Amino acid sequence: MxxxxxxxxxxxxxxxxDKRLPNWLNQDIPNAQVIKIARDIAxxxxxxxxxxxxxxxxxxxxxxxxxxxxxxxxxxxxxxxFCNIEKAGVTKPDVDYREAERIIEVVxxxxxxxxxxxxxxRDDLDDGGSFQFASILELIHEISNDIKVEVLVPDFQGRxxxxxxxxxxxxxxxxxxxxxxxRLYAVVRPQADYSRSLNLLKIAKEFNSSLITKSSLMLGMGxxxxxxxxVMHDLRRSNCDILTLGxxxxxxxxxxxxxxxxxxxxxxxxxxIAIKLGFKKVLSGPKVRSSYKxxxxxxxxxxxx
Length: 305
Hints:
The protein is α/β, with parallel strands linked by helices.
């Protein structure tokens, strides 16, 4: 039997991967409801980042009747070392323009009033997939204006007009994840650009000042506290409204390895600092992911405004 985790530091736990996860990372066990939702989504021919990325919160979110839809297929054109999404080979997948209709079917089936949509990154497409985002937004708005949609978009390789296509389709929240600190981009996100991601969030606000913007940061990848503070400051300078911070967990031994298990007390410290910096809402904790409790978070901001 593997040894129990021995925590030497009450804040940052330098725990090797051959030991059990800290008890604060225990996850819900799938029940019949979770299995049924997963089966219904699969039968509809719809992808979710919950399943494709092996999100550890899948049971909790499905039990709460929440899911994050994954569009533009399930094969990504980038090679981020932290992500479990399948990577594209020489042949890129065709765009399935019926995908939006199938997602609408699942939205109706689940009775969703808040829908989260993200995508693989499609650098092979001239518009980066912005048309597909817009199509889903328009179809959902046709069903009901009461259904709110949060989109988690890629960087579109800096194409401003692709971003505008999505914003013009009127999302409730526009999210784009910074993911990690600037120093680690070359290893963790070699095809992304730290400044480009910040600029996307800044430009989104310039297009629509009332749009809620959001970003997410994974911790435990070897970043320092000072580097986390730097990211927070940079995001606020880009007028980002919502920040989520969570523990990075490697999907497999082939992925970028976890360097630290961040203690809940440290997450609380980051949350306090982020709020003082001016973020309208901050979710910070070991189990937090970019779309975690998305509806509750964004509606709190909406009510406050």
